[in-house]
Amino acid sequence: MQFEMTTTVFSANKVTVEGRTYCSVFTGQPPVGDSAENTLGVEVTKISAEPEVFEQLKREGYQPGQSPQDFKLVAMLKKAANGKSQPHIIAVVPGHKTPAEPQKKAS
To answer: Is the pTM of the predicted complex or chain greater than 0.70?
Structure first.
């Protein structure tokens, strides 16, 4: 099952280990629910991704050292430990990049 999500991308990393290339994307969102009271700033999540996602982000203009940007990503659920599932990013939707919203101060 594939789904789209719009999220703030903080960084993407690509590494090759023993001839196999891996990619991960660090995303963030304002805390919600129970974790909102116990989190300062944003919740950061590391999500695995296909290596092509790194190249797609580059084609969308994402550069080293650049401020976080909002992207629309295509993901699918992948099996994880203990019968659970987790998202795995498989693509970037072209042309859906926007500057990340500045975080609002709590009053």
So the answer is: yes
